[in-house]
Amino acid sequence: MQVFSSIESAAAFVHDGSAVTIGSFDGIHIGHQSILAELSACARENGLKSVLVTFDPHPQQIVSTTDIPPLLTTTTEKLRLLEEQKLDAVVVMDFTREVAAVSARDFLEKYLLEGLACRFLVIGSNHAFGHRREGNADFLRANAERYGYHLRTLDPILFRDRPVSSMRIRREITTGDFGAALAMLGHDLEFEGAVVHGKGLGKRLGFPTINITLSAEKIVPAPGVYAAYNIIDSRRRYGMMYVGDQKQKFAFEVNLFDFDGDLYGDTVSVFPTAFVRGSMQFADSGALAKQIAHDEVTIREMFNTR
Asked: What pLDDT, on the 0 to 100 scale, is given for residue 295?
């Protein structure tokens, strides 16, 4: 998969024609995956390059001051997930106020048709792009014959009889059912960050942790304890993750089972796999240590069962 930072830099790669999809694709959830599978199939069938056009930063960070969603996936995390989707290219456009002001017709003509030699467009039926989101399925369908491209629209993928969306997944992660969120994602959720020094409380209790700083744009799960794993030196290391209450001082830390290495200063990725319990108040450190020991037994059993 080739990654380009602009339409212009991708032009030579796709000069013989492309099949294109476009969108934020935050999370690369099962709905996104269905679009990307259709895109790849369409490209293969027609001898075209499959291309995803996405944006950095998230468009809502530019066009809105109040409704800015936390990210399910940073751009780096998104690109790692996209490596598994068998695409030929991903274009990560710098989303600016100037780009936000481009009309749907100009975006179609300049970026997709001229820039990427687009012959097929594959989109979700509720997707739209361009100024005021005018580039919806109706607009693209009405202009297909005029501009000589083919359009395929896909209906949303349903989970529990409702459409899967990044917004719905965010809500489940922060206030609802973490298992449902992972089911809709179709993959484990990655949290990448630098390992920093904490207060050392976990070590004093007999459960040393690595403290991780996340991107300010990244979603934070509901407070509590989670089963989780890290990938360290290409090996999966299981453990338990604690997420603190954001109303107080935020904490994001992981105790790795049977691991005593030094990761300070490293960048690591943590993948929570299940919500175990919510935050609790304890009378003293002894009661806290007893609960953590119980959490460890519970989580080890969960991983052994898997």
From this structure: 95
DSSP sequence for the chain? -EEESSHHHHTTTTTT-EEEEES--TT--HHHHHHHHHHHHHHHHHT-EEEEEEEES-HHHHH-SS--PPBSS-HHHHHHHHGGGT-SEEEEEE--HHHHTS-HHHIIIIIIIIIT-EEEEEEETT---SGGG---HHHHHHHHHHHT-EEEEEPPPEETTEE--HHHHHHHHHHS-HHHHHHHHTSPPPEEEEEE---SHHHHTT---EEEEEPTTB--PPSEEEEEEEEETTEEEEEEEEE--TTSS--EEEEETT-----TT-EEEEEEEEEEE-----SSHHHHHHHHHHHHHHHHHHHHH-
- What domains sit in the chain, N to C, each tagged with a CATH number? 2-163 (3.40.50.620), 190-305 (2.40.30.30)
Looking at the predicted structure, is the pLDDT value of residue 10 above 60? Answer: yes
Let me know the angle formed at the C-alpha of 224 by 32 and 305, rounded to the nearest 5 degrees.
70
Question: Cis peptide before 57, with omega less than 30 degrees from 0?
Answer: yes
At residue 235, the pLDDT reads 87
User: What's the confidence (pLDDT) of residue 306?
Assistant: 61
- State pLDDT tens for residues 108-135: 999 999 999 999 999 999 999 998 899 9
- Reported as half-sphere exposure (CB side, CA atoms, 13 A), residue 104 has a value of 16
What is the mean pLDDT of the segment spanning 144-160?
97
